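Recall that a protein's primary structure is simply its ordered list of amino acids. Everything else, from secondary elements to tertiary packing, is in principle encoded there. The following example makes that idea concrete.
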Amino acid sequence: GTVSAIREFLNGHGFLEVETPMMQKIAGGALARPFATHHNALDMKLYMRIAPELYLKRLTVGGIEKVFEINRNFRNEGISTQHNPEFTMLEFYWAYADYQDLMRLTEEMFGFVAHRAAGTGEVTFGEQRISFRAPFRRLSLREGAREAASRKLGREVQMEELRSRESAVALADALHLEGLQVTPAMGPGKITAEIFEKLCEDQLVQPTFVYDFPTEVSPLSKQNPDDPETVERFELYVGGFEVANAFSELNDPVEQRRRFEDQLQSRAGGDEEAHAMDEDYIRALEYGLPPTAGEGVGIGRLVMLLTNSP
């Protein structure tokens, strides 16, 4: 019932459902390792998509102002209770909207889907009662990381400590977080995001929009006009894990090329998840992407929450 409720909600809000290619020359639209395959007739290497993002945004360039796809994605990575190498995701784009508009739409959609699929806006997940009533809590990623680091170290961590690479590395070292390996390819933004992931994520049980992500980990998101080191992006956390990721789309082709070049530097530094260069997508942006907001929702994780299936 979850998928049909999502369709009903988006159709009712004027969105058009489409299908985009699953096999792509460049696996883009997310930071993840792809599966590779071979096309015999064309004798070329192709990748299974890690996200439909760059194709859906091409459709927005072409004039479809509200578009969505409920799609299978393939990521050649770890397996856990929250990660499957192939998984279903909803991805949608809304022209002339921004990430604040998406927060309001997401609150409305999650409430609608919970009532349709589970019969209630309050569900039990494990030991917790989770309420999908709007408004959801909002938390800045950097502030969340700073507060959690302060609690762990027993001292007030200053925001400045997360802004330079040197001080962010020192903070990460002091925290002794299991599994946090600082590599030369990581700048302060990536380190801050890792600290947040290790210290904060599992604490976010009630629906929480974590917003204003570091630019460094968001190569397709529009920068914050007041703070170029962050972008207009949020992730929605429920039950201690991420269920949605959304942002105001970067629609400046010159800046997009620069971001892809930064990602290539990270790739050269050993980051296998870094984004590849996509000249065709940059050409689409040169034709003109209107100011647009886009979002992806993990269907499997949402169903886990609504059916109490940890």
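The first helix runs from residue 2 to 12. The chain has nine helices and 14 strands.
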